[in-house]
Each structure stands twice: as structure tokens, then as C-alpha cells.
Amino acid sequence: MLVGWVVRVPLLAGKEGHEAITRAAWEGLALTVTQRRALIRGVRAPDIGLAGLLSSAFPFAQQRHALRAWYGTTTADAIQQMRDFMTARHLRALALPDGPRRWAVFGEVLHCLQDSYSPAHADRDGARILMIRHWGPLDALRRTGGGTPPVDEHGFPTDRRDRAWTSGALSAEAGAAVSASRGYLAVAARHSGSAESEESRRRELSAFLDGCVSGATDNDPNRAAA
Q1: Does residue 220 form part of some domain?
Q2: Total number of domains constituting the chain
Q3: 103 is a domain residue
Q4: Range of the domain at 90
Q5: How far apart are CA 90 and CA 108, in angstroms?
Q6: Does 6 fall in a domain?
Q7: What is the pTM of this model?
Q8: What is the chain's pLDDT, residue by residue, as a tens digit (226 residues)?
Q9: How far apart are CA 164 and CA 6, in angstroms?
Q10: Is 115 a member of any domain?
């Protein structure tokens, strides 16, 4: 629950974030109750339990949350790491029997995709990612006079921009995450019900990601002032 759209945790966070985005995304799609429940488990998993704590603590797992692994990691590299992670998990899901485990892994892919739409994680120009932020305790030490960070990174340990709701409705950014999530779920459902080759599935997923997880080519956007 430290990074990404907030997830509901009793006594700590009562408002849904990833869950609400996912519920809105599957509207109009013919998913079973079992598939929906598994998606919710999967989209929550990176932020809770042991796996969630590891994701929040170690750089190698930051790609699960659409964040740069290290302060010096470039946005272009972070985008590629996200895409590699999402592709690997998507194919891993399809290697599992069609059931709750498969759809829970699809939920992990959704989590990463949704995080990339959070203002705490990325700056976007529509579908194009301009900059991916970093999350870590040392960012607070990189400050100039007056307490202003030289680079706008994800707040530590939490960031108010991760809130999915504003004035009782999903924010514009969360709404964009809903649209992207619906697109991914359509791809996942189609692949889950077909016997296409892995190469064909890779091509279709890559084409989908080109429309929402691509962008920066500058090797070091926003790092010059650091």
C-alpha cells in the first residue's frame, strides 16, 4: 500500500484504488465471477503481504509498480523494463491452466499498467510516457535550499498523488487507467480463449503496449538538474 494507487487495507486504508479501477475496467466484458475475483487478488498482490513488501523495498522489483529501479535509471530504460515485465507475466499467465491462478497473474500485469497512469509514478502526454519517477528513502536527502527536491520523484513513503478519487469520483488519471485496463483485459481474454502461437501473442501485446507504455527516448529526462 506504499506505492501505486492505494489498495483497501482494513484499519489503514478504507478507499479502493486499484480495485475500483479494475472493477470499472471489466464492465462490458464477459468475465466470470471467478475471473473477476482472481483479478482483484492479483491487482492487490504487489502492494500487500510479503511480496508487496519486497516490491516496495528492492530496486529490482520497482518495475512491477511502473517506477525507476534506481535514481540513475533512465525513463527510457524504465519503460523497457516495464514492458519486459508485463510481457513475461502475461506469457506466464497463459502458460498456466485457465483458472484463478492465470487471472491473478493477469491482475499483476494490470497493477503495473495502472500504476503508470498515477501522477505519483509518471508524467504523461496522453498515451505517451514522458517521465517515470523513482521511489526510495534517499530521495528525501537530495534537496536544495528551501527543501525543494531537484527532481520531482515519488514521495517517500507515500504520495498524495496516488489517490484515485477526487470529489467522490475517480480522477481523470484513474479514468485513463480504466480505459487502458479494459484494453488489456480484452487482449488477455482473447489470448486466454485462443490457441495462437506465442509469437502471435507477443506481437498483439506489443502493439497494445505501444499505445500506452511507450514514449521517452531521451536517455536522461529531467536528470540534468540533479
Answers
A1: no
A2: 1
A3: yes
A4: 18-215
A5: 9
A6: no
A7: 0.85
A8: 444 555 554 434 457 899 999 999 999 999 999 999 999 999 999 888 666 666 667 888 899 999 999 988 999 999 999 999 999 999 999 999 999 999 999 999 999 999 999 999 999 998 899 999 998 766 666 554 455 554 688 877 778 888 888 888 899 999 999 999 999 999 999 999 999 999 999 999 999 999 999 986 654 544 433 3
A9: 7
A10: yes
